[in-house]
Every structure is written in C-alpha cells, then in structure tokens.
Amino acid sequence: MLSPFAKTLEDLSPEDPYYQKGYAVYLSLITMRDMHAYFIDNIHKYVSDTIGPWRLLSVGCGNGQLDLDLLDIISQRFPLLDIEYVGLEPNRCRLDLFKKNISLYPSVSRYHFQLEQIDLDGYENRKNSEKFNLILCVRVLYYMYDKLESTFMRLINRLTVKGKLLAVHQSPSGIVQIIHAAGLEQQSPIQSCNTFHLRQALEKLVSQMPSLHFSITYLDNYVDISCLKNINSNDESERENALSLFSFFLNKKLTGIDRELVEKTAIECILSLVAFRKAGNTDSCLMFQPIGIVSLELQS
C-alpha cells in the first residue's frame, strides 16, 4: 500500500503540468454517451424560452467540451434563444482550447462568449450583481471541498427567479475507491470529494431554506483504465501515461518512487479492487464510476 509513503509523496496542484497531463488522459478514457443522452432528454428542465438574453455562468469551464455540447443541444431545442455565456477558468491553456473549440460548433457561434481567466473567488471579489438563468459546475466543486455550503450559497445568490444550478460531479465509486484502497483518503480531500459530500452540504442548506430543492441523478459511466497495466512498461510514452493517470487518481506525484512498489499498488491492490473485464476481452480493464448530476433550484 502507498499509505506508509504518503508523507514523502508530493501533492499535485491542479496547475501542475503533471496533474493536467493525468487529467487529460482521464478525460480521454471517459465514456460520455449517457450524459449526452441525458441532456438531450432533459434539457427542458434547465432551459426555457425567455424574452431578452438568457444568461449562463460556467464555473471552471475548462476547455468547454461539455459546455459546448450542452449549448449545441440548447441551440437545436431553442433556436430563437439569445444566449450570453460567461466562463470562468483560471488556467490559461484550457481557456485557449475553449476558444479553439468554439469553431467546432457552428450552431453556437452566434452566442456571446465572455471567457475570463479567473476563479470564483476572484469573480465574487468584484462585488457585481450579475444574475444567471443557469449556472454550471462541471467537475469543479472538488476544489471547494472545504467550503461547499458557502459556495452553494454564493451561486444561489447569482440565480435569477426560477434559475437553475447544474453540477456534474463524481460519485463515491471509482476514483474515491482507489484513494481509499491506497490509504490516502485523509490526504487527498480534493479527489475524495463526491456526491455524498454535496448532498450533506445541500441538506444543511435545505434545513435553513425550505424553498431550496435539489436532486441527484446518477448516470452509468465506465472508465477504461487498462493503461495502468503499463505503469512499468519499457515504452516511455506508455509508462508516462500510466504514471500521470495514477498520479491524478491519487493526487500524488509518483515519479521517482520505487517502480516495484508503484506496480504492486497499481495492479495488485487497485486494479483488482475497482476493475473488471469485458466478456470475451481479457485485456480490458473497466472501472465503474457513475456520474452524479446535481440539480438545484429555488422554488417560490
């Protein structure tokens, strides 16, 4: 297990290039079909025709992959809707990717995009009173794990009447299980934060605000983590992908650690716990990690 070495392992900051590499590998392995289908079937719950601009705030918009997919769905269902999009993202590289990705979605090019290199704290410090019809938090509430209640309140105060908040977040399965298996749950609170913690925070708010309603829907999701078998591969590229992915899972930098220890932990202790094989494919190694869709609104 890695826990005896936890204090000697360097934590990974979200701004660390090694973290970003592991995150990019992770995103490339996620299946998103169920989420896309969910939004096609349920977009009417979050969007409605309105007079005047319809405003969307995305906190931690990243490279815009899910946001642009969502906007594309909205444009088809509500072709006359005039959308003003505000995206907050502290990472310049991801913002640059977002700008490039917009050109891949001709249907949304008519919308007004305001992309800012800033986090939620910086945005709130401006003390502006902007309101939004929809607020998106896609895989970003991990970083607010120690202030979920206050973060939700700040976002609720940004909603228009009948506005909605939509968060995409990890469930207690998958990555969280890996962290627990490695004995690092106390040292990786960001990665351990899951829909259980979001529910706890929201239930406390509901007790204070009876008009607040929320729901959590889970969508099946599988991540093919077969590449972790290459963690001690002689192929440098394969090894780097495996190490960066495993580092992202644990929120620890695994370079420079005994190779046999990392291999044993990754393959014997982790893969055997969270992964299973596809029928008829002995090389497959799938991790079940349902996606949590958190919906929130204030009802009069």
First CA to last CA: what distance? 51 Å
Shape annotation: globular
Q: Largest beta sheet, briefly? A: 7 strands, mixed
- The CATH topology of one domain: Rossmann fold
Category by helix and strand content: alpha/beta
**Based on the structure given, which CATH architecture of one domain is correct?**
3-Layer(aba) Sandwich
Give the oligomeric state of the chains in this entry, treating copies of one chain as homo and distinct chains as hetero.
single chain
Q: Write out the CATH superfamily name of one domain.
A: Vaccinia Virus protein VP39
Order of helices and strands: EHHEHEHEHEHEHHHEEHEHEEE
Q: Please indicate the percent range of residues in DSSP E strands (runs of 2 or more).
A: 15-25%
Approximate helicity band: 25-40%
CATH class of one domain: Alpha Beta
Rg, please?
A: 20 Å
Give the mean pLDDT.
87
Helix run count: 11
Strand order of the largest sheet: 4-3-2-5-6-12-7
User: Low-confidence stretches at least 5 residues in length (pLDDT < 50)?
Assistant: none
Number of strands: 12
InterPro entries: SAM-dependent_MTases_sf (IPR029063)
Organism: Rotaria socialis
Protein name: Methyltransferase domain-containing protein
